[in-house]
Each structure stands twice: as C-alpha cells, then as structure tokens.
Amino acid sequence: MTITLAMDIGGTHVSAALVGSTGLLRASLQRTHINEAWPADRLLDAWAQTALTAVSHAASCDQVALSVPGPFDYQRGVAHFDLKMRSLTGLNITRALEQRWAGTVLETQPISYVNDAVAFTRGEYLFGAGRGVRRLLGITLGTGLGSGFLVNGEAQTSGADVPPNGEIRFLPIRGGIADEHLSAPGLRTAYTRLGGEPLEPRELAERAATADGLARQVFREFGHDLGAVLKVCADSFQPDQIVVGGQISRAWPLFAAELMAQLAGFTVVRSELLDDANLLGAAQRPHTARAVARSDRPLGVPEQRSPS
After folding, report:
1. Where in the chain are all domains bearing CATH 3.30.420.40?
2. Has residue 57 got a pLDDT over 70?
3. 142-151 confidence digits (pLDDT tens)
4. What is the CATH number of domain 129-271?
5. What is the residue-wise DSSP string for 205-234?
6. Quick one: residue 254, left, alpha or beta (phi over 0 = left, psi -120 to 50 = alpha)?
7. Which of 61, 123, 254, 262 is 20 to 30 A off residue 289, Cα-Cα?
8. Taking Cα atoms as reference points, which of 224, 134, 235 lies closest to residue 181?
9. Residue 58: its pLDDT value, please?
10. Cα–Cα dist 229/236, whole Å
C-alpha cells in the first residue's frame, strides 16, 4: 500500500496527514496555525515541522503531496504568490523543504504539488459531497477565493467554458475583483465599512448568531455576491453540482439562501469533508518523480518567472 504524506497549505494554517488506500490515518493529522505575513524562513519551518510530526506516526512514507494556493508553478515547485505569503514569492519550495528534511525519512521522498482548490474539488469528487459527479465545480472560501473545475475527475483549466487557468478570483464584482470581496479580508472590510470591528469570519459568524444585524447583513451580501460571480461560471461550465468549502463555509446557514437564490436551477451543496478534502484530493495523484529539477541556485535566491 502506498503511503502519501499529504499537506494542505493555507494563509492561516498548514495541515498534514498520512493517507493510505483507506483514507486519512487520523492519528497522524497535524494542524499548525500560521500567519501568512511571516517571513519565508518562519513559514517554511512551520510547514516542514508539521510534516515531520505527521510522518512520525508511520514506519514509512512513499511520497509527499502538497495542496498549495496559486499563483504557483506546480511543475517546478516555485511560488509566485501575489496576495498572501508574499515572502515566499520566487522561491523554489522543493529545495527549501529538502534542506529542512535532510537526514529525515522525508529526505528522498518525491514531492509534488496541486492547486488547493483543485485538490479540494477532487477530494469531494472521490470521497465527499461530489462523489461521482460528472461536471463538478468546487469553491473554497478562506483567505482567498479558490475554484476547481472537474470533468470526470480531471481538472479543466482552459477552454471556452472555464475562466483562464480555471480561476474565478479575478472575475469583477463591486468595482474590484472577486478575491478581494469573497474572502476573509473581504468580510472584514465589509463589516468595518458598516461601522463594525475588523473581525475574523468565525468571530463575525458568532456575532451574526447573537442577532448582530450588521454581521447578518454582511453575510447576506456575501452570499448574493458569491452567487452572482458563480452564476457567470455556471452558465458557461454547466456543472452538475457546485460544492462549497473552505473556512467560511462553516458559516453556511448565514449566506446559503442568498447564494442559492442567485443559482436557481443549479445544485449547490456544502462540503462534506471540509478540511479533509484538500488532503485526500492532493494524495490521489501518481507521484513518480520530483516536481522540480535540482539546480545550483543557492537556496533563498528567487527564481524568475518564465515569460508567458
């Protein structure tokens, strides 16, 4: 049985767990809170240590798979982050992890990467709310807005029926882009604009649950705007189902009605797997070689983005 160390990288956390043919080895699951504004070394140290703690629960590990937000060069393992974790931009992540894992069980393991929203959608397709759905659109709501378009389990990143690179975050809404408004920072901004404090989504949801009218208004508008953006994608992609996950989806009752009203005629469900989806989806890929070639570039020297 192949054992994969799966990792999920976010702006507020890094999770890691061992995944086998029967799913997650629950005892191995580790979750470390981070701050996306940390310097590169601190972020990478947190990632590496979380992985080592998770892998200590097994006698062996065959490969490492990371679910990572974009923009990211998933073939070469180079970060091009523009809205969060900017301290990592230009760094060869594989080489940085290899250095930190030297002398450990992970030192020689193949490392590969997959977009976090695609990993989420694949996890739901294989094990969760989207099991077996032919055309599945997955949405992740967190420190950013992610999207995965699957047809028969395969990611779609080009073509007339999906946005460029399969990303909805750049679609226009309220004079800006979707990622600015339909995310944790967007919720904070909306609440403060109405006179509230800058709160995290969990705190804002707690306020809404205690009859805070402003908080409830923010979530209603969030659902309306998310529905408006997804309607554009759904009309083109014609998904058989839309599954919504990410940390903000935990506040589902506060925005689901407005979201579904915008998406009448489409099936919209909340994630069944939540945090597990990314780990399971990342692990369900063949990993036969390292995703990036070794180079002589000193660690910490940014690589240049290849011309498009």
Report:
1. 4-116, 129-271
2. yes
3. 989 999 999 9
4. 3.30.420.40
5. HHHHHTT-HHHHHHHHHHHHHHHHHHHHHH
6. alpha
7. 123
8. 224
9. 83
10. 12
